[in-house]
Sequence to fold (358 residues):
Amino acid sequence: MVMKRDQALHSLARHYADGIVVAVFQSAFDWMKIRPHPLNYLCVGAMGQASSHALGLALGAPGEKVVVLDGDGSLLMNLGSLVTVANMKPDNFFHFVCQNNMYEVNGKFPIPGAESIRFDQMARAAGYRQVFSFDDLAEFDQQIGAILELKGPVFVCMHIEPGEYYPLDYETIHSEQSRTTFRNALTKRLQMS
Amino acid sequence: MIKGISIISAFKAAEVRSIVALPDIVTCDALLWPLSADPAFKFVPVCKEDEGVSICAGLSYCNNRAVLMMQHTGFLDSINAIRAIAVDYQLPIVMVVGLQGAEAGVPAAQSRITGIRALIPISDALGLAYAELGKGEDELTVTQMIHTSYEKSSPCVVFIPQPPV
Fold:
């Protein structure tokens, strides 16, 4: 059983309407349509860097929750970040990985180890404080609110397949406007806190 | 002669609050160990240098000034992250790079070691501001480079060719 990614992200957005989200590739394309928000951090470059950007934000803004929407292929490019994050123990860090076992925006080619890889076990072994894995939308929707109240670092593996199609808007995720919008929103948020 | 204590003072004068690092044999004794134990800094050890580029990027949005310390091999390994995150996104990523194996008194651009010799043309091609320490006024140079990096929101690299004392 797997979840439709857009349905899982809609569920997450209902429970996390107003916080920082660092998103990568297809998750970012979906997320910025599902939850358009100035605190969406979209400019992560490439090569699996989302979790590292998010760690910088989590350490720099310890009073704010930081959610990462990572991809499976992306995380494979930056596996050491699991150890780096766990070692720093940011209690405001929530690491979601959309596992569909393929490089979806790069030709839908399978990731190495697609049939056997267990990201939740890797995160647990690295030292994440809380680790979850979901393949059922109703269960995810029922538990995600409470998970977002836990002390991090939290890791959530989401077994998904593509849902509704959202356009690959690379121009927006790499744009100066996107960075400026985020910076202004975060500055305002930090001044208020 | 490069003094570790002067570089640490420069970091403090430039309001650096976070040190993101992998160990490098050139800078480990006189910089990394003291920095890791200095309560003035939050110390963030990373597994790979490109992680550090991104962590510094995230910190920069929070007005938390950071320095990424690494060996020149890590710098070379991180070129795409530096290109995308520091250069294309115009973020103040400050990198302090030890030149492991550099010949004393030989400028990096003239080194017999390929990885060291390549640093200058690569930095030029990326449009990175850089300085090679050991030419006097190191403390002032480092402080000014960090201030400029954050004021202009642009990256810079400080190359350390010999172990500081």
Summary: The mean pLDDT of chain A is 95.
